């Protein structure tokens, strides 16, 4: 399975995918790692792993949609069969995303549908939730709104902070995302107008 990954930051989720592939657990080929930040650590990781990289500067484009169109044209040109958003911090134009329905997933650090958007750990703490978690979902035009195909859960402790939650959750994300990509690579998880996991529709 040929995958392209988009990341805006350090790329720890990308690193987890590469490690799973190197351990022979993930039958994937990385065809591109793209970013909206030329300084993103994810691009350095990709270079070290010999993966083609692409950094597009949003400031070089007249508007957001022009940036998104160029980025997705380059992803298509890479031959990617699956797009993985892993710490990509931009909202993508709905029409551009629509072209990748069923072929793009995102990992989000909350138990969707709780806390779409930003600052999820803080919102979880402020709400006094007993548990927190991460979700992998298919990307649709609705921000963090597509069908959730898998989640990881962690308990929230009385002494937890945003930082301690984020760290504990990241360790779970690094297992969850490779597991979902593996399910897609093996055909267990697929899209035929809706997400189907082991033969059962996922809403
Ligand atoms: C992670 O919390 C992930 O859930 C979110 O971005 C954060 C950083 O990811 N999407 P990474 O370390 O850059 O992979």
Give a structural overview:
- By secondary structure, this protein is α/β, with parallel strands linked by helices.
- It contains six helices and ten strands; from the N terminus they run E-H-E-H-E-H-E-H-E-H-E-E-H-E-E-E.
- Strands 3-2-1-4-5-6-7 form a seven-stranded mixed β-sheet, sandwiched between helices. The chain has a three-stranded antiparallel β-sheet with strand order 8-9-10.
- Strand 1 (2-6), helix 1 and strand 2 form a beta-alpha-beta unit.
- The model has no long low-confidence stretch (mean pLDDT 97).
Keywords:
203 residues; alpha/beta; seven-stranded mixed β-sheet; three-stranded antiparallel β-sheet; 24% strand; globular; binds 5-O-phosphono-beta-D-ribofuranosylamine
Helix content: 25-40%
Rg from alpha-carbon coordinates: 16 Å
Shape: globular
Query: In whole angstroms, how far apart are the ends?
Result: 24 Å
